[in-house]
Fold:
Amino acid sequence: MLVWIDAVQCGRLPKIFGLTLVERHLQALKRSLPRPARIVVDLGAEGQRPKIDPSLDGAFQIEWRQQPGDFAVRLQRFLDEAVGEAALLLDGATLPDARLHAALAPLSDSVAVLAPKDDERAAMVLLSPDHNPNLSIDGADLTALAVKWLAAGTVRAYRQEEFNGFIRKLRRTIPYYMFRVETREKAAKVEKFMFWSNYKGSTDFFTRYVYPPLVWISVGPLARARVHPNSVTIFSIILALGAIPIWAIGETWSFWTGFAMAYAMSVLDSVDGKLARLTFTDSRLGNFLDHGLDMVHPPFWYLSWAYGLGLSTLGWGSPLGIATILVMVFYVVDRMILKVYPTFFQRAFHTHSKLDGRMRTFIARRNITLPMFIIGYVFGYATQAFYLIVAWQILTACYHGVRTFWIIVIDRAHLKDRRPTDVAAALKHVD
Structure:
């Protein structure tokens, strides 16, 4: 497959999270299979070649073409070279959902994708290998041409119904989107839309409603500075593990220092994921470090809280010691139970139904147990709050166990080919 990007406005358009629209196209194409054999970035006579990530040059052959001519002349020049080849036509002034590039790549017929909102004036076009070499190119830009080709039957319309919008990592379904971005005001609106679209459909209360303002003011500057999300993840690991010995000291100052480190880590835990997805810098190492930290640190936090409350003096046979053992054991049991559902459905447990999505809001997790313990500590009931956390963890494990047994053994939902439930709130499109 060959790709043509109309980048005549490159250099004059605002960036989205530190990346030009052209680079966002290239990054999306890098993640599509099969990858294109050659990409022509058509800068026209005045377009400016942007700086791109060096890895893109090694991913495929990129030709930066700078020749005069209006839209029709430049596109015709490319199509003359693409006879007998599939051709993907893109507009360097638009920001399409990055999943669309991968969705169109394996198609064998000619299709056009228009923005869900008509006033966005954005489009993508895929021409099949046997497309007519004498196509009529009658349009001022790709959107106008796509509309005319659709009316003439040259291409068919690609519909939302064909698009698999479920994102496993986010536990939600998001329809594809496409925007035309020509002003800073529009870029700001699109960035906010993309930011919120990268929140998980089922998550805890604090991640959804408390942390976002802090995450928002962090992601933009970090993206523009091209800070890699793995750097953020490593810093959050230092905070998460560093709080453990500090809490165990058991002094007032140490508890408050640990709380501050824990909350900073909790915010950064949202920042690194958003930063990775919004700047195409997600990686296996980053996912391993991020999710590994999420799974490993909570029981060690509970253990350090117990030591801070006097476990070393009271001993493991005390009520506090027994509670500590229980919370650590049931935390591990809960995690093991949650590994069962994905083996049948290839998606997370909390996407099964809206009930399960809602339960994810307040089940025993770090962002729920941490404020529970802090409130108890502030009012002089830290030990009682710890016992409450233990009970909450046991109840959470029991719910997941019973619910998983019901879904797989009683209801046998895995044999009924059910589609994932969209547990996310509806997204608002950019005005």
About this structure: The radius of gyration is 26 Å. The chain has a mean pLDDT of 92.
